[in-house]
Amino acid sequence: MEAARVAELAARAIMEKKGLDPVILDLRGITLIADYFVIASGTAATHVQAIAGRVEEVLEENGVKPLHREGWDAARWILLDYGDVVVHIFREEERRFYDLERLWRDAGVVKID
Q1: CB distance 109 to 37 below 8 Å
Q2: Does the pTM exceed 0.90?
Q3: Using an 8 Å Cβ cutoff, are 85 and 55 in contact?
Q4: Is residue 36 within 8 Å of residue 85, measured between CB atoms?
Q5: Spatial separation of the C-alpha atoms in residues 72 and 54, rounded to whole Å
Q6: Cα–Cα distance between 55 and 7 in angstroms, integer?
Q7: Is 96 buried (19+), middle (13-18) or exposed (0-12) by CB count in 10 A?
């Protein structure tokens, strides 16, 4: 499946679980780390886990499994690595602190329908 479609599915899954301020950053041509970052936040650890769980569920239903997952237990920042797409689900405080959108400000922002 194309990376853009994986990012879109992840963003839709985030929205299903009422994730806050989802954004897709287009990193193509900026870094080799990934083509897209999908970033969102939740209000509490359980919300962050619910969002990440739904992302995994939706992508697995579409034949895409994460290569790596970290941060689940503390649920302050859960990272789901799908190769060309990396999903970051933060608690609100951590998202403000790490501010990936500012760090990757040269990236394009993909509109989420």
Answers
A1: no
A2: yes
A3: no
A4: yes
A5: 13
A6: 10
A7: exposed
